[in-house]
Amino acid sequence: MKKIILSLAVISSALLADIAVVVNPASGVDALDAGQVKKIFMAKTKKFPNGNAVVPIDQNSENPAYATFYKKVAGKSPAKMNKYWVKLTFTGKAEAPKKVGGDGDVVSLVKSNKNMIGYVDSSAVTGDVKVVYTVK
Q1: How many C-beta atoms lie closer than 10 Å to residue 41's C-beta?
Q2: Residues linked to residue 56 through DSSP beta bridges, in sequence order
């Protein structure tokens, strides 16, 4: 059963379109590079490059976008990301980003807070958010 679920997750993530990293249009951020995105989502920085505070939003680890995003941005599987956050949280170095259910939740939160950043399937991008990086 676990093999079937894992296979479905792999197939689902392969079928995803590009993943868009999105911010609030009022964030003052026009673009980010892969290294900046990784630093933000791995809690290596708490600020956008322009100096404003940044609050990353994660999708649930069951969501295929989560696995695809972290595999391509950080080179880590969901299990390795879980271990990463347990270690950082336990040592008090950082807290894991807030997790939400899916693309719609990310867009809703990001559009309501200029300091938030999240990632969504590119098909979920609306005019309420700005794409600053695309994970292919």
Answers
A1: 23
A2: 117
Residue with tokens 């630093």: 39
CA distances from 27 to 22, 80, 83, 115 (A): 10, 30, 31, 6
The pair of structure tokens assigned to 117 is 């950043």
Using the Cα atoms of residue 45, residue 72, residue 107 and residue 125 in order, give the sign of their dihedral: positive
Successive 10-residue mean pLDDT values, the chain, 136 residues: 51 67 97 97 97 97 93 95 94 93 96 98 97 96
Number of residues in the chain: 136
Q: Which domain holds residue 109?
A: 2-135
How many domains in the chain?
1
What is the token pair recorded at 59? 């999708």
Helix (H) or strand (E) holding 34: helix 34-41
- The residues pairing with 135 across neighbouring beta strands, listed in sequence order, are 19
